[in-house]
Amino acid sequence: MAELSTVARPYAKAAFEYAFSQGQLAEWSNMLSLAATAVSDKAVQNVLSNPGISQQQKAEVVLDICAAVMNENGKNFVQTLSEVGRLSLFPQIAAQFEVLKAEQEKTVEVEIFSAYELTNEQQTKLAQALQKRLNREIKIQTQVDKSLIGGVLIHAGDTVIDGSVRGKLAKLAEAMNS
């Protein structure tokens, strides 16, 4: 069976292209995120995996949960996914939509792991340096990871910058063993 992200890709791309053409990226992002959260719920998963429930009824369950944010086109999207038995793909579709949206908006979410809490000044300097290097708007999330010993580990999309003491020690050990 094909990997879920591969199966979800055309749906995410179609949703993105439609939302972009309508100037509704934020609205679609919100709708897809809520639908992804809904279908990730254990109770909803039980409903969606029940063969005794029709695809229409499964769509209605998701639409009832998401009624507050779904516009007419979002409802049609849910119906279409339901008809082909793909409602469970919403988490992958939402994730891929967000990647496409970030690419369009020239933004990137950056996770910074540091051995100690970073000050606002340090975060600002890191954001400026990353913005210059990646040529994108930067959204930073920081986490403390004491196992790094010192320094930082930065995840920006597919890019990983390891400036941690742990990483440098691992490289040194590898060089000494080869």
Automatic annotation (TrEMBL):
Membrane topology of the entry: Peripheral membrane protein
Described function: F(1)F(0) ATP synthase produces ATP from ADP in the presence of a proton or sodium gradient. F-type ATPases consist of two structural domains, F(1) containing the extramembraneous catalytic core and F(0) containing the membrane proton channel, linked together by a central stalk and a peripheral stalk. During catalysis, ATP synthesis in the catalytic domain of F(1) is coupled via a rotary mechanism of the central stalk subunits to proton translocation. This protein is part of the stalk that links CF(0) to CF(1). It either transmits conformational changes from CF(0) to CF(1) or is implicated in proton conduction.
Pfam families: OSCP
Lineage: Bacteria, Pseudomonadati, Pseudomonadota, Gammaproteobacteria, Oceanospirillales
Keywords: ATP synthesis, Cell membrane, CF(1), Hydrogen ion transport, Ion transport, Membrane, Transport
Localization per Swiss-Prot or TrEMBL: Cell membrane; Membrane
Main location, first listed in the record: membrane
Family listed: Belongs to the ATPase delta chain family.
CC per GO annotation: plasma membrane; proton-transporting ATP synthase complex
GO molecular function, one term: proton-transporting ATP synthase activity, rotational mechanism
Domain of life assignment: Bacteria
Name of the protein: ATP synthase subunit delta
